[in-house]
């Protein structure tokens, strides 16, 4: 009798498991801890989020652009640019694609809209939740105060001024006493490099006000990358781009430019005209 009751109980447990298990099949939640907040916009690591939402991603390291393929869409994005190509349509995002510490970041709003996902943002916990079909990605916005506090970060006004002074290096022949003129903005190391014949941008290339985030590797060192579209390739399917990569240092109470390096690359045609 006891054996019969035990058999019935086991059968009941098996039936409960059999009926309840399918409700959880296929559900998956991934938690990501390296989202960032930039100009009051949430940026998320593209590879982690997209790969968990069904996107096939290809990263072109040398030219720093991304191709994402889903069943219905092909998405093209490029570091430092706001425009994205979704199939044959150009979409302007609310923030440029950024490369921060080797990780590519893109607007959370853009990802959710493009993938057709539901989005929830909890301002109190600084946590974003993206839901698509049975997939859920939870993004926690990181706090970078361990690297540098807001009071020590370079102001937008100072950043704009340094960008303008870097633009002026394309017209050195018009500047008297170069070392004295650039001393408030550039380190001695950079001034010496300029006087020693460092590669400088062409006169007709003038970078706009910086939109990108300064990435701080320490409380006294930051990096910034700016891009200029030179024009289309002969086929018109791509753009030639000229990057200016800048290293900033905080010295004696002020931020200065310590190094600059120029890099050419080719990105997909994202609707920019030159």
SSE inventory with pairings:
Layout: H1 2-20, E1 28-38, E2 41-45, H2 46-52, E3 56-60, E4 65-69, E5 74-78, E6 83-86, E7 89-92, E8 98-100, E9 103-107, H3 108-115, E10 118-122, E11 127-132, E12 135-141, H4 156-168, H5 178-182, H6 188-195, E13 215-218, E14 221-232, E15 238-251, E16 254-268
Parallel strand pairs: 1-12
Antiparallel strand pairs: 1-2, 2-9, 3-4, 4-5, 5-6, 6-7, 8-9, 10-11, 11-12, 13-14, 14-15, 15-16
Descriptive notes:
Mean pLDDT is 84; it is low at 1-25. The protein is of the alpha+beta class and 274 residues long. A hairpin with a 2-residue loop joins strand 6 and strand 7 (89-92). The chain contains six helices and 16 strands. Strands 8-9-2-1-12-11-10 form a seven-stranded mixed beta sheet. Strands 3-4-5-6-7 form a five-stranded antiparallel beta sheet, covered by helices on one side. It has a four-stranded antiparallel beta sheet with strand order 13-14-15-16. 22% of the residues lie in helices and 40% in strands. The protein has helices spanning 2-20, 46-52, 108-115, 156-168, 178-182, 188-195, and strands at residues 28-38, 41-45, 56-60, 65-69, 74-78, 83-86, 89-92, 98-100, 103-107, 118-122, 127-132, 135-141, 215-218, 221-232, 238-251, 254-268. The longest helix is centred in the first third of the chain and has 19 residues, at 2-20. The chain is globular. The N and C termini lie far apart (88 Å).
